[in-house]
Amino acid sequence: MMNNDLFWNASIDDLKKGYLYDDNDGNYICLICGDKLENGIIHNYNNQLITSEKRMQYHIDEVHGGTFNFLISLNKKYTGLTDNQKEVLECFHKNMNDKEISRELHISESTIRNYRFKLREKEKQAKIFTILMELASNNTHDNKIIEPHKTATMIDDRYVITEDEREKIVKRYFTPEGKLKDLPSKEKRKIIVLRHIAENFKPNYRYTEKEINRILKRIYDDYAIVRRYLIEYGYLDRCNDCSYYWVK
Hints:
By secondary structure, the chain is α+β, with helices and mostly antiparallel strands. 50% of the residues lie in helices and 12% in strands. The strands form 4 sheets. The protein has a 3-stranded antiparallel beta sheet. Strands 8-10-9 form a 3-stranded antiparallel beta sheet. The termini are close together. The mean pLDDT is 88. InterPro entries: DUF2087, Sig_transdc_resp-reg_C-effctor, Tscrpt_reg_LuxR_C, WH-like_DNA-bd_sf. It comes from Vallitalea guaymasensis. Residues 78-135 form the HTH luxR-type domain.
């Protein structure tokens, strides 16, 4: 969640790898969860000495199942793919031929060829659209729109939030010490406030309910309702018995 902006602003090459190198602080950063590895460190991994970049590559594969599996699992609002198209792409990724895919998905080989054609057309359209957006962005002075967090439960107009809006709402509803003055009733403001609060939690860490409550108590007296909203809006998740919480 903390890595959302970094993820969407990353280059195509970095997204394919699942990580990038930050020249400013000398770290390799996972674009999926935000984990960092300092450059220049040698890691002992399975009785082998490897670089931080190589260790990050193993991290992407072991923790997230590889970049492809993470990206293909994203909601249709991000990929633009139907469930059937995802299944076919997964077979392509496994290097299966049309006959094998036909047996696997119980569809004809002619249907697979049709999927292949449509997906290639979609790829061409995506390239042109990317170029058009880059050219258009170079000639606009509009305030930057903040990308919704990847696990948002429902994307609509509430998530059309500019950087200026975010800064104004944070300044209005939080004290300089980070205490929430009041929980807004308007949905867009609530989303901004919850997003700001969610930045207090580390990705890939399992919090007990006691730890969650302790952090939220420092921010707002009615910590229980904030905790509920963080889960409801897709910022946090928890196991069924509520014994552990984590950044979703």
